[in-house]
Description:
45% of the residues lie in helices and 20% in strands. It is an alpha+beta fold. It starts with a strand and ends with a strand.
Amino acid sequence: MSFKLVSIKDVPKSKLKKFDCGTEVLNEFLSRYSLKNDTLGIGRTFLLSHC
């Protein structure tokens, strides 16, 4: 099985809203703050994705 890192900027917003890792705090961070922080240059978020 192979994986790749994907920038949060490359993930469709519709998929971010549906994302559920089972940890509410992480779900909230991804949906509310990750893209905004990346755009402002104060943080970068990457997701590990199956190829």
